[in-house]
Amino acid sequence: MKIALAFCLLAVFLKSTSYANGSRDQVIFGSSTDSVLVKKFVEARQSSTWTGTYGGAAGRAIDGHTNGNFNARTCTHSSCRGETNPWWYVKLQSSKVISKVVIYNRQDCCASRLAGAVIGIGSSNFPPFTRNQRCGTISSDMTKVTRIEVVCNQPIIGQYVSVRLPGTNCLTLCEVQIYESVSVTPFITARQSSTYYEGGAAIRAIDGNIDTRYLYGRASCTHTARQRNPWWYADFGSLKTVSKVVIYNRGDCCADRLGDAQVRVGGTTVAPFTRNTQCGGTITQVMIRSNPVEIECHRPITGRYVSVYIPGNNKILSLCEVKVYSRQ
Ligand SMILES: [Ca+2]
């Protein structure tokens, strides 16, 4: 009983620390939505660009760098030459359901300039973006922190995220992060081709624990024996539509073992699952450099089972967590 209570407290602690530190919200087992950072953009544009030494191109707000020092050349900057109502927008690769926008503000000076900026989301790239829905407005209090988090009252669908600054201040954005709201589809059970004698049950990949250590971790990762053509699959219990599969790979060693794995969705539980539809491409060593490994399906796939299969001899399949998303 004491051990169970201690485990519960530990689990609560881990969840709260993960929220505090991660750029990605942690899924709580059985919960239905997750906020995921949007990474694919078509272009960013702005009303004008600063012509001084350090420049200030629109693309700097989506360059992946959050540094707030303007001299680091990762912040945008409008021209400021008597311009009124400067604006910036980004076009996403496709329309998304957006739940929040995070803006990294300038820090070396001038942070208060951003007060009054209106964040819009919608289908319009036409200033003043009145056809876009308002996600939020930045108050002067909000400009006192480096990372300004604007949570929309409710998720808004759109391909354009606009920032419009009413008045005559200069518009500078050091980074704009856009979070998509996705449904997390829970599994009811999982199976695999074999289990390593020291432990590594199939269900560990759907236990809600994203710890990526097999050794000395929290019993969070599956592990098959070394075998030919290892496989794992999990069962939703009913038909679901899958748009993306995220695999938390082993982080303590051996990440490369996941290379050549195929992720499929469909109605069969029989390896090699070729009657199920493959989600995305076969996992490459380049994809494994990131953890978690994100596999976008080319198009949404409906099925009851999600399988992971590695063809070849002397293979080991180890999964620390598998999360499945469907678009809302
Ligand atoms: Ca796990």
- What small molecules does the structure contain? calcium ion
CATH superfamily of the largest domain: Galactose-binding domain-like
Domains, number: 2
The proportion of strand residues reads 35-45%
CATH architecture of the largest domain: Sandwich
What is the overall silhouette? Answer: elongated
Query: Total strand count, please?
Result: 13
The largest pleated sheet is described as: 13 strands, antiparallel
**C-alpha end-to-end distance:** 40 Å
Provide a count of the helices: 2
The level 1 CATH classification of the largest domain is: Mainly Beta
Q: Round the mean pLDDT to the nearest integer and report it.
A: 90
Order of helices and strands: HEEEEEEEEEEEHEE
Main attributes of the structure:
328 residues, mainly beta, Jelly Rolls, 2 domains, 13 strands, 7% helix, elongated, binds calcium ion
Q: What's the topology here?
A:
Layout: H1 2-21, E1 33-37, E2 41-46, E3 87-104, E4 118-122, E5 133-137, E6 147-164, E7 175-184, E8 189-192, E9 231-248, E10 262-266, E11 277-278, H2 285-288, E12 293-309, E13 321-327
Antiparallel strand pairs: 1-7, 2-3, 3-6, 3-7, 4-5, 4-6, 7-13, 8-9, 9-12, 9-13, 10-11, 10-12
